[in-house]
C-alpha cells in the first residue's frame, strides 16, 4: 500500500544538539539573527538503542542580544493552533526568559536550515517539545556559567528568572544581555550537563499564555497570505476546468481584454490524472491591476472545455454503487479469530451501512500566493502549511534549482490540510514566469469549493454479533472510499494503511473476532486530507454502532466501553494486520503504545464531569463516544435537545483529553472548542455533491458551516494532568464529537443516524 | 471608471475605479487597507464587515457607487492603538485562533453594541450569525461581547 504524504514517518525519538552559529549560518538565515549569542539547535533522531542515526540540518535558532532581547525563530506554520506561541514558550520557560522580552520571527521555508517544516498531523509539539527544552536549558547554562564566573560563585547556586541570572544566597542578579559577550566565548555544554526543569518549576509550560499575534490580529495588522504585497504586483484570477482531468480546448478573451484594468490572459497547462498536489489544474488566467478587474475579466472569459473522463460523474450515484459494493466480501486488512463462526453462533446480529459525503476545507481565507521572479530566482509569499513542499513544487514547475526558490510563510487564515498542498503556489509561479510580472493568484470562494482537495465521500458497513452470553463476539467493518493515495497514483482503488489506521484497523476493543475489509472506490475529484482525516467517517460509524450494540445488550454505553477495553494493557495491532501495517500516526508503537488505561481514564473522567446518568430536563439527552487519534485519548459527551420542529440544540459538550504534557493550556482548550464546532459543521451542515463531474455548491450558502445560533453552546475541556510526552491536539477533538452527538440525538428522539449530514426531517 | 470621494476613518479619499467595484477591493487594493478581509464575495461570511455610519455592512457586496456621503469605519479606524473596548475584550478572552475572520467579527460586534448596548445572548447570536468562523471561536466571541456590554 502507498505511503501517504500526511502519514509519512514523522519522527523517532527526536533529540537535539546545540551549537554556536557560524558566519555561514548567519548568511543562510538571511541576517535575521546576527550579533549577540546565537545558538543553532540541531535535531537528530535515534534508533531504539539511543544511537544517533541521522543528523538533520540545524532547525531552529535562538539569539540573545546584548540588550537582553531573546529572539526565537518559529519554524512551523501558524494557522490558528497557536504553534508560533507554544514552541517558543517551551524554550523561554527552560531558559527563564521574560516572555515580554521575547521576539518571535517566522522562518522562511528552508529545509537545509530548519528541516521539514510540514505542519500537519498534529505533531509539532509532539516532535519538538524535548529538543526545545534542551535548547533553552543549554542557553541557560551558558548564561549561568558566565554569571558564576563573574561573581566567583558555584553555578549550582545560580538560577534564571525574568531574563536574569540570579544568585540566591547573595540576592545578586544580572541581565542576560550583560552576559552575552562571555557566554558567546564559552564552549557549548554537553546535554548530559544540563538539568531540565522539574515540572513544578515551570512558569509557562502547563499554564495559559495568550497567543503572540493576538494584538496584531484584533487591530487588523496581522499579515495573512492575502495581505502580502510587492511593488507592481498584479492580480490573477483563474478559470479552471470544472471536471477533474478536463482541459482547455479553446478560449475567447476579447470581452475580457476590454475590461478596464485587465492586462493579459494566459492559459495554464494541466488537468493530468493523477492530479498530484503540486500541479495546477488546466485553466485560463486573467491578470489585472486589481482583484475586481481580474474577477470581472474571468467572468467575461469564454472557454470551451474538453471535459475529460469525469464529465458524467455523479456523487449520489457513486454512493449508491459503493453501498452495493460494501455488501460483498472485500480485501481483508485485519483479522482476528473467526468472524464467520461468531456469526453462526450469534444470538443477535446488528448490521448497518453508514454514509458520509465529500467535505471541503473552506478556510475563510481562500488559497492565494504571491510569486516574484527576478534574475532566475523565485520568491514566494504564501499561507502555506508546507513551505518546502511548495519550494520543491515551484522549482520543478519553473525548471530551476530548489535553492533558487525562497518561500516566505505568512499567517494562514485557516489551514485544516488544504494549505499543505502547493498547487495554488505553483500557479502563481508559472504566471509570474509567463507574464514577467509579480503575480498574486487569488482564489475566490467558488474556486475553493469547486477545486478543493476534498475529504472523500465514504460508505461503511459494520456487522456486529452478540453471542448467547450477551457478549459482543464479532465485528466486521467494511470500508469503501476513494483513497488519498489516488491523488498521487490513479491505480489505487482502496484505502491505504495510514487511512485505515485512523480508527478502523486500530479498533481497540476486546472482541474475539474482528475483520476489517476494504472495497474498490474510484477517485473522481482531487482527494486530500482534512482535519482528522479518515477518523471522521470511521469513528462516526464505529461510535454510533457501539452505542446501538450497548442498547441491544441492555448495557450502559460507558460501562460497555470500559468492559470492551478490558484490563490495562498496550495494544500493538500489527500481528493481526493482513497485507499491511498499523502506522500509529508515524510513530513506533513501542514509543507511543495504545494504552487501554489512558482511554479508560478519560472515559471515567468525562462521565464524572458531564454527570453521566444524571436526570436531565425533559427533551434533553446525553450521548457518548471515545477515540484515540494522533496519539491523544479523547472521550466526549454531548448534551442535546430536539424540539417539535426537529431543531437540534447542543447545550453542552464535555471533553476529557489525555494529550500527555499540555504545553499551553489555553490553546489546548481552544483547539477542543474549535474542534467541536468543526465537527458540528460536518455533522449537521456540510456536504459537497457532484453532478456531471462538477461540484454543485458554489459558496457558503450551498456549502454550509455552522453559525453562532446553532453552534454548541458550552464546551468544557477537562485536561488530564500528565507528565507523559506531549501528543497532538489539533485534530483529536473532531472524531468523537460527531458520534457522541448522533448518540445523544438517538437518546432524545429514538432516531438512529446512519448518514451525514444529519437530517431529522427525512 | 469614475471618480469617487469617500470618507474612511475620518479621512477623505479620492479614488478612480469602476463604479461596480465593491468597497472591499477599494479598501484593500486601492487604499491598501488590509485589515478588512475577503472570504466569499457574496455577503455570506462577514469577513469583510465594515461600518457605514453606525451600521455593519458586507463590503464585498457593497459597490463604491453606493457609499455616497456615508462615513466608513474599518478595523484600522476604530481605535488608534487597537484598544477599542471590543478589541480589548477580544484580547482578554483570547478569542482568535487563526484570526482571519476576527476583524469582521469585531466590526460586526462594534455595530451591534452601538445599536444595543446590552444585548442578550440570543440577540448576540442573531446579530453575529452572518459572521462565519471556521476555527470555531463563537463561544469566546459571545463572552467577549457580553463582557463589553456588562461594562458599559
UniProtKB/TrEMBL annotation, chain A:
Q: Which GO terms describe its molecular function?
A: oxidoreductase activity
Domain of life according to the entry: Bacteria
Q: Which residues form the Aldehyde oxidase/xanthine dehydrogenase a/b hammerhead domain?
A: 219-309
Please identify the protein, giving its name as recorded.
Isoquinoline 1-oxidoreductase, beta subunit
UniProtKB/TrEMBL annotation, chain B:
Superkingdom is Bacteria
Q: Which CDD domains match?
A: fer2
This protein's record includes keyword Lipid metabolism:
no
Checking InterPro entries in the record gives: 2Fe-2S-bd, 2Fe-2S-bd_dom_sf, 2Fe-2S_ferredoxin-like_sf, 2Fe-2S_ferredoxin-type, 2Fe2S_fd_BS, Beta-grasp_dom_sf, Diverse_Oxidoreductases
Q: Does the keyword Metal-binding apply?
A: yes
Task: Pinpoint the 2Fe-2S ferredoxin-type domain residues.
Answer: 2-78
Keywords attached to this Swiss-Prot or TrEMBL record, sorted alphabetically, are: 2Fe-2S, Iron, Iron-sulfur, Metal-binding, Oxidoreductase
Which is one GO molecular function term here? Answer: 2 iron, 2 sulfur cluster binding
Q: Specify the protein name.
A: Isoquinoline 1-oxidoreductase, alpha subunit
Q: Which organism is it from?
A: Olivibacter domesticus (Pseudosphingobacterium domesticum)
Lineage, highest ranks first: Bacteria, Pseudomonadati, Bacteroidota, Sphingobacteriia, Sphingobacteriales
